[in-house]
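Summary of Year 1 activities. Much of the first year was spent building the evaluation harness for sequence design. The harness presents a backbone, in tokenized form, and records the residue chosen at every position. We chose the following record to illustrate the format because it has been used consistently in internal testing since the harness was completed.
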């Protein structure tokens, strides 16, 4: 598989146009499609999300094959690809359950795959951290810790604190545990992303990695929005967290395509 410099520019232009069009749709969609059939709108939005995820999965796993799975670099892309594949399966199952008129259960089988995605993604990032033979300065380590603690504090206040307050009155302890597991895993994933980022230095391969890391950060932002967003408002068809998820998937897809481009050009 090869992607030329000319082709990657066209792909990035198409991806950017797709993101802009989807942003406009999300901004004006609630007014344009007010009163539209709920099932049709769910299928439309989920089709966008699932297509963007599976494309990323295909190219991430392709990178694993191109680098050979026997190498550390190959295993990085394999684990990232498996993580996104788990996320795709979770999203697919969630969509099917969400179409049930009786409502989707929580926790569900979808949560198994969503949760499985985190360790796969984190392992891929940790392997990448080990390959970056760069010693961090004390200033860089302190800076990374400050960003991680600040991000964790935001997630704690927005998501975990309300859950803790609900635990005293809830009868579904297992459901509460699973719900609380997501922000904890988001914090862990964000920490690994930040440490990979601070170890990156100048170089074109880093531009590809930055796109992927931004995509993973956006996934944690989207997950935080999902946990704090009103779910039952019939007037909100196009929800902000779905837009954030879509952008995250497109960034990861763009990053994986950029890596293939750099391999093709021998850079």
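For this record, the design step produced the sequence shown next.
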């Amino acid at each position: 598989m090869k992607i030329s410099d000319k082709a990657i520019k066209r792909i990035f232009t198409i991806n950017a146009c797709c993101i802009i069009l989807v942003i406009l749709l999300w901004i004006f969609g609630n007014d344009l499609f007010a009163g539209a059939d709920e099932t049709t709108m769910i299928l439309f939005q989920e089709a966008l999300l699932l297509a963007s995820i599976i494309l990323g999965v295909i190219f991430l796993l392709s990178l694993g094959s191109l680098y050979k799975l026997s190498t550390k670099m190959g295993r990085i892309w394999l684990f990232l690809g498996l993580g996104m594949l788990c996320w795709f399966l979770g999203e697919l199952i969630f969509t099917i359950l969400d179409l049930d008129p009786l409502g989707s259960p929580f926790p569900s089988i979808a949560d198994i795959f969503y949760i499985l995605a985190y360790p796969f993604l984190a392992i891929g990032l940790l392997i990448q951290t080990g390959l970056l033979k760069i010693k961090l300065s004390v200033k860089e380590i302190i800076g990374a810790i400050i960003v991680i603690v600040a991000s964790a504090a935001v997630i704690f206040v927005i998501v975990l604190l309300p859950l803790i307050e609900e635990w005293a009155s809830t009868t579904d302890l297992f459901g509460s545990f699973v719900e609380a597991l997501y922000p904890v895993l988001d914090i862990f994933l964000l920490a690994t992303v930040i440490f990979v980022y601070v170890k990156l230095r100048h170089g074109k391969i880093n531009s590809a990695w930055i796109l992927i890391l931004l995509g993973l950060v956006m996934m944690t932002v989207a997950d935080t929005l999902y946990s704090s967003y009103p779910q039952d408002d019939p007037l909100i068809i196009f929800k902000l967290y779905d837009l954030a998820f879509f952008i995250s998937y497109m960034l990861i897809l763009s990053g994986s395509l950029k890596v293939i481009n750099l391999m093709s050009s021998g850079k």
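The chain has a mean pLDDT of 87. Quantitative recovery figures across the full test set are reported in Table 2.
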